Every structure is written in C-alpha cells, then in structure tokens.
Task: structure prediction
Amino acid sequence: MKLARDATIPMVCECITAFFVLLVHCPLAAADAAFSFQQLRSFGFESLLGMSPTAPLIEGSDGYFYGATGGGPDQSGTVFKIEKNGGGYQVLHRFGSNEKDGFAPSGLIEGSDGALYGVTSRGGSNEFSWYVLYGGTVFKINKDGSGYRILHNFGSFGDGQNPLGRLVEASDGALYGTTTEAGTNSGGTLFKLNKDGTAYTNLHHFSFLARPGGGVIEGSNGGLYGTAERDGDHAAGTVFRINKDGSGYSVLHHFSGSYRFTGDDGAFPRASLLQASDGVFYGTTSIGGATNSGTVFTIKPDGTGYRMLHSFDIYSADGSYPDCALIEGTNGFLYGTTPNGGPGGMGHVFMLSKEGTGFTILHRFTYDDFDGLYPSGELMQSRAGVLYGTTAMGGFGGAGIIFRLNGDGSDYEILRSFIFAGGDGAEPMSAVVEGYDGALYGTTPFGGVGTSQGPSGERGSGTVFKVDKDGSGYAVLHRFGETQNDGKEPNATLLHTKHGALYGTTRSGGTNGVGSIFSIRPDGSAYTSLYSFSLNGSDGNHPQAELIQGSDGELYGVTAAGGSNYAGTVFKINTNSTGYTVLHTFALRDGRPQCKLVEGSDGGLYGTTPEGGSNTFGSVFRLSRSGNGYATIHHFDYDDIDGVRPYAGVIEGSDGRLYGTTTQGGTKNNGTVFRLNKDGSGYEVLRSFGPSFLEDGTMPIGGLLEGPDGVLYGTTTYGGDNTGSPGFGTAFRINKDGTGYAHIIFTTGERGGLNPAATLALGSDGAIYGTTRAGGRLGLGIIFRLLKPLVLEPLSYAGDQGFRFSVRGHPGLRIRIQRSGDMKIWNDWGILTMDGNPVTLSDTDSEIQSQHFYRAVFP
Result:
C-alpha cells in the first residue's frame, strides 16, 4: 500500500505507546547524523557465477549435467546444473553464502534417492577452531537447488580434514570417502556415514602423510579400493583395499618411483581407481615412469598383475602429470586427461587400450580460439556415448570451460566458458557519473569477459555499466576484450560530453596492449576505439585517469607512462578521434601523472603527481590548454605537517581555490585534505587524518566533491574501525575552512561495502553517489548513495483518534514503513515516496493495548 500525507492506516498490531526506531539496513556506523546510506547495486550476476570447474561432471537421472566449480569471486565455489547442449546454466548453491558453510567443493554423485552428495575441502563449523587447519564438509542438495544441508563438519578431535576425492554410495546404501589430512596419525582417514548424516564413523586412520586424495570405489567383490599419494614403503604411494566395516585393510601395491628415482614404476597416485568391464583396476600416477612424467597402470583386485601400461613423456608432445581418474568408454578403451604437456604445455585428452597399446591424443589444449587450458576432473561419457570434461582455466572468460568430443576425438566443441563475476563487472575503482538522461554510468576494471586480466589470470577485462539512481535498470553496456585490439581494464571515471556520448580510457589493451581511448553511446551502441597508445612512442601509454572536456570542446587527459622521458604525458584529442597532440611530456623528476585534470576558471589545466617534485613526494602543477607555461605550484614535503603522495586530482571550489587529498603525510601520516590558491600561494592542510585508524579514516585515495551546500565530501579507503583491524574505509564531510569534519564507517556484510577508492559524485536529486571496490553480497564491490537523514518523530497521541507521527527524508527516496510489537517480528505497513516535505501518518487501531515500535527500511 502506498501511504499518503495525513493518511489514516488501520493497525494490524496492538499498541498504546510508540517507540521509534530508524533501521535503514545501514551497514555504516555514523559519527554524526550527516548521512543515510543505501546500497544500490552489489556487483556480480549470482545466477551465472562459477570459475575453475575442477570437479568432474555427472549426468543426472533427469538428463541434466551437474558439476561444481572450485573458484568464484570469493573462491568459495558453486554447484551448478546445465543442459547437454550448454544451455540453461543455473547455479544451485553458492558456497560461503551461509554462515559456517563449506567451500571449495570436489566432485558430486547422485544418490539412490535422487539427491546430489559431495564434499568441500574447506570450511564448515570447525575450520576456524584453533586445532583445525583445513576443515571441510559433506553436503547434500536436491537437483532443483533446494534442501541444501551439511551432513558432516570435519575437524573435530581425531577426525579427518580436507576431503578431496568424490564420495561413493556403496551397495549398503551408505556413503564412503576419504580425507587427506588429520586423523589420529595425521595422514587422513577413510570415513562412512548414512545419507541422512547419521552414523558417521572413521573406518581407518592412514599413516603419517599418506594423503588418500582420490576417494574410494566399491569393487565387484564388495571391498573398497583406493590410492594413497604418499603412503607405502617408499613414501611414493600405495593401492589399498579395505572392507566396508573397516576391517581387512591391506596394501596391494607399493609404488617405488620418486622425484629422486625414476624407473619403470610410477609415484604419487592422486586419483581414484577405475574397475573396468574386465574386472581389473586401472589408475594413474602423477609422476614416475621413464621420464618422471606420470603413468597409467593396471592391477588385479587381489594385488597381482601390476603392470605399467603407459609412461608419459614430458620431453615430447606427450602429456604429463596425470592427476585424474580414468574412465572406460563404450568401445572398451580407456580415456583420460593430463593437465600439462602437449605443444603448449596446456594438457590434452587421450585414449589408450586396456592392453597399453594404441595410445592416442584426441585433443591438445592451446591458447588458440579461446580454448580451455589445464583439463581438470575426470572425463564423463554420456549415455549417448559422447565424452564431456572441464578445464580449470581458459575459454572466452579465462575461468575454464565445459567441452565435449566424440570417442575418436572428432567434433570437439566448447559448451560453456565460465566467466568471472558471472559476466558482470567487478571491483569498481572509479566514480559513477550522471548522464543527461538522469542515469548513472561507470566502469569496472575487472569482470565481463574477454582476455584474462589480473594476477589470478581469470578476472576478466572490465565493463561499462548503467544503473538508475534508485538501483533499478542495471545493464552492462560493454564488455572489454571481446574483440581483438579492444581496450582492457578501464580504471577511470567516464566523461559524459555535451553532445551525449560517453568517453573513457583503458589502462591496457588496444592495438599495442598499453591502453586506449574509447567512446560509447548511453544505450550501449556505437562503441568505438578512438585511439590506441603506442608501446614505445612519445604519445604516452597506460592512461588511468578520467578525461575532461575543456571549454574549447577538446578532450584532455594524462598518461601515467610513456612520452619521450617515459614519465607520462598531458594530451588532447578531438571528440571525433582526430588531432591527438601531446601538450607536455613529464620528466622523471616531475613525477608520473595518474589523476584527472581540472580546468580552472582562469582557463588553465591543473593536476597532481603522486611522486616527483623537488621533494619526490608529489606535486600540484599548472599548464595552459596550448601546452605552454608548465609550472609546479606546490611541492609536497614529508615534514610531519604537509601531506604527501596525492593519488587524486584537485578540484576548484566555489571560492576559486584548489582543494585535494593526499594518501599519506600529515601529522599522523594517514593522509590529508589541503587547499591552495591557483598561483600556489596560501597552501594549508585543512585536515590530517588520524590519530589512528581506530578513530578516523586513513588513506584518502579518491578526490573531493563540493556539494550544493558548499561542503567538501570525500572517502578514505581504509580506517574508521574500532575492532583493531585496518578498517574498511569512511565517507566524510568537511567545510572548506577545515571545520565541521564528520564521517561514517564502512562495514562488512551483504549490505555493506568495503574500501571506497573513487571520488564521490553529486546527483541531480541532491544525493551523493559512490562505489566501493570490495564488499557487497559477493565481495565484488557496490554502488551506494548517501542521503539526507531520514527522520521519524512523534507528533501526538489522541486516544481513539490514533497516534500521529511525521516522516521526513531525501526527495525521491522510497521507504517501507514497518511496525512491530516486540522488535522481533516486523510487519509491512506501506511504502512512501518522499518529496522533501514532512509526511504525517496516523495509526488509528481501535485495539491499542500495548507498546508498539515503528521503523523505516529500504524496499
């Protein structure tokens, strides 16, 4: 129900006394009442998440494929479902989304009851105990994603930890598996439990450092068989057998190969065994053999007949270091993968007869055509006879693939490329900008698709996005890296020019891989690469600052590197991509410019360098639009008063002075807010952050914004914490004379954001908008807005005429009013859209008998 001014709303709860509580799901601690905080967008498409599918696929009884990914934005992993043609991808569960959940899942199995069962190698309720290093869980989930439940948390005293292999449901209906760590001998365990989680039992504790990582299988004789990677007489691994009640444990084979000795035997078996149609077991070792590159072996159920069928050769085009189980094809051949080897060292799919002859490489993984890299998990053959598998990396998004091919190697096809952040942008480092249509536009340096970026090799190349000011209408307008020579890693805020186009820069990519200038329409059309910087030329490279449009209509910007002195440049370019000109080449003593320019009211261009200057700690400089008259108007100095290392540009205030921030320096070396005149005189530090991160923000990486009230607004990337940690940053305000400082603190949680690093932006609605590079539901950053305080205040109580109270808030803000009798169960009362004026509400329930509570939350 939409509430109106002076509305009379029947009560659904009894009340006599009203107690007002303002809860806006605000993940910030306020130093004053200067702001109300609202998260507009948490980055990441949760339904499309998944990275590094290191677990094998299974074909469910319903005909869908099921699998698990070990990575993701928070490295927790997922369980997913997908159709055989690669369509219909759906995340059934994201690990780590529940408190004390497991993370890093291994393989799945489908139980006889139709549910999915699996293990996670980490997480669970015990992992953060002082005696638990790895933890892990056994879990259950239905094939529609419902009914997720942890059946067992590893890590109690004497229990195993870090299960890596798949479970097996044996003929008695119980689940069996192994752990690689802990147990009474610190070598891992073999365990058993029922499918409802009851009757958990450790059947065997392996010897010190044995590491049975591949799980067990049930043989045709009812015994359990498996491998232990470091067990045995030579500490090179074993094949073992054990009864399902834990009795009769015996070692069938001691591997003798090692890093120091390479002979005919293998070493370090990491995968489970395969019992083929001939009743014989087949397996792999990750090293050993003729060139210490791994082997395929066979052994009979009684331990006799051990024979090495194939020795991999790292020095040829052969694969190497196999660590996944084999499968038997419908044609009777053995199929497997190696994560290394081949021409590019990226692994391959192979076929081998059970006699050890006919070794054939069916597919070699390479960087070509966005193929997958480093196959992971055993292959699966569908009921139709087609082979399916996964790779841990590669593909169009750099985060792994699902592939298929026929048993003879023909018709190889990539069914799905996994994408960091589910194809959404991630970790925004720049401010949003309001377009002429009233929407917000911004960039993320990671996420999207395209060639990999970042230290993990799978973080994507960045995006341009759009979102309405109320958080609705979110859309990715461009994903960088989808085409050859496209830009990558846009670090800078966009510029919305007078003729309507958006302009920006990318730090890398482009024709020469060192950055580009691009334009795009607000609807996502007409994306154009306007200029690619040269690798060793005098034009500069690696731009990471926002462009500005000068009063002459030209675009101006800086590069952080390149130029004739390799220290960066100031440049200009026409909006139609012509007329690129270097206005100034920096010398190393000047420092490298990394921040946005500003055109002053005098027509000059002003900027900063975070290093260089006469004291090597940064500078403020001035330059004319023609490139003449370059001058340093302030040299920052580490003198316990001045700030140092400005990583943001300056702004010109309404009083004609320049204002800015430094990330370090000041009286406590936590950064400063400063001002100076455009001729360099009158320099003054307005605020030294500190005295410590426990009380104040630290390291203001972003620049300043002057609000319509004449007050300066900014953020600090760290600090503002009272728990003893470095803190997650603050948003602050300060008057231009240094008085009136106040801040709010960013905190953890799904509704929170962490580590804001960009300048804030002022919307036409009077709200202030910003981004954080971390935090939010998936830890990938958020878009937020700061609003004028929302105020609920009582007016009167008139018996049967009800209770009247007033609500006042930021214009355009939509809030939901809720009521409660005990502050535990809250009931919706209606939604209000504020217009800046007080809204008076009346509560006229005729059965008012007890106290009542009201609160306002965001819808």
